[in-house]
Design brief:
The chain has 306 residues and is an alpha/beta fold. The protein contains ten helices and seven strands. The strands form two sheets. The chain has a five-stranded mixed β-sheet with strand order 2-1-3-5-4, sandwiched between helices. A two-stranded antiparallel sheet has the order 6-7. Strand 1, helix 3 and strand 2 form a beta-alpha-beta unit. Bound molecules: zinc ion.
Length: 306
């Protein structure tokens, strides 16, 4: 898709060389004995020229959502490529299972946020990329620790690069950025905003907005969790991280605005009426907290890159 300037640079002297060759051939054509050889040579040279000038086939044209990952070194996660790929593949398998859309990780870049904004890190990454991704995951506490507090958040960035083409369009020339807190503590209990343990029971919005739920230490001893959530699927930190990746991705492709699972908009889209079903929490978890209408929206966002 992107005309590579280096390729054009190389072909320029070649062009003059070929013009010279054609000149010689025309001179040779004056001699009728070599006319057929000359025609053959001209056709061959035309084919070579055509392929040299023909733009390289775009990497994006693979019917796969191509994702780059940035790790914010300042968040000081214990993290490595192998572990990241495991979690990413977990999310990719779930996405394909639910929506039929494939996503693949192309590269992992470790950068320091350095008191800058997430968006600056993404642009720093893109500046050094030959071929741009169709979505970026940033493992980070986020701007103002927002991902640390919430688990993750979505933000897109408008791209003014005219030759950028994404097979999955989140918006008009919008590149989806998913800011995800790596191994965010799902259903943490008794902690303040800075992750200090200050209570033996839940308070504030903890344990699904239910105060005074017992906080129990997990089997892995990593943190205290709301007792009633200790056996949830997302009590597994890898699964929770994959869940957040998908949840935030869906915010970028929610064309019909179904929003979160169980929201009035979602209930309306699914023709479920006002009342939430009894298995609401299970269904919500199965759909990563998002309205399942988004699977169709994501599929329909497919855009053919010429
Ligand atoms: Zn959300």
């Amino acid at each position: 898709m992107f005309l590579n300037s280096k390729r054009i640079g190389k072909t320029k002297p070649l062009f003059y060389f070929l013009v010279k060759v054609c000149d010689i051939i025309i001179n040779m054509m004056m001699n009728k004995k070599v006319i057929f050889f000359a025609i053959f040579l001209i056709i061959t040279l035309s084919i070579v020229l055509f392929f040299l000038y023909f733009p390289k086939k775009d990497f994006h044209e693979n019917k796969i959502l191509d994702v780059d990952i940035i790790v914010d070194l300042d968040s000081k996660y214990e993290i490595n490529d192998k572990k990241i790929k495991e979690v990413f593949n977990l999310a990719a398998d779930l996405l394909e299972d639910r929506s039929g859309v494939k996503m693949v990780n192309r590269q992992i870049n470790y950068l320091s946020k350095n008191n800058k904004k997430i968006i600056d890190m993404v642009h720093e990454h893109l500046k050094n990329s030959v071929d741009w991704p169709e979505a970026v995951i940033v493992f980070s506490f986020g701007d103002d620790n927002f991902a640390r507090r919430m688990g993750g958040y979505y933000r897109g960035t408008e791209i003014d690069k005219t030759d950028y083409c994404s097979e999955y369009k989140a918006g008009k020339n919008q590149l989806p950025i998913l800011v995800v807190d790596w191994h965010n503590w799902y259903a943490r209990c008794g902690y303040d905003e800075n992750y200090n343990k200050v209570s033996a029971v839940s308070f504030g919005g903890q344990c699904q907005n239910t105060p005074n739920i017992s906080c129990v230490i997990r089997q892995d001893k990593i943190y205290f969790i709301c007792e009633r959530n200790k056996n949830d699927l997302r009590a597994d930190l890898d699964k929770h991280t994959a869940y957040i990746i998908l949840h935030e991705l869906f915010h970028g492709f929610d064309k019909r605005q179904g929003y979160h699972y169980g929201s009035p908009q979602c209930q309306k889209l699914l023709k479920l009426g006002q009342k939430l079903s009894d298995d609401y929490e299970k269904k919500s978890e199965e759909n990563f907290g998002f309205c399942p209408s988004v699977y169709e929206d994501l599929k329909n966002s497919y855009n053919h890159c010429p």
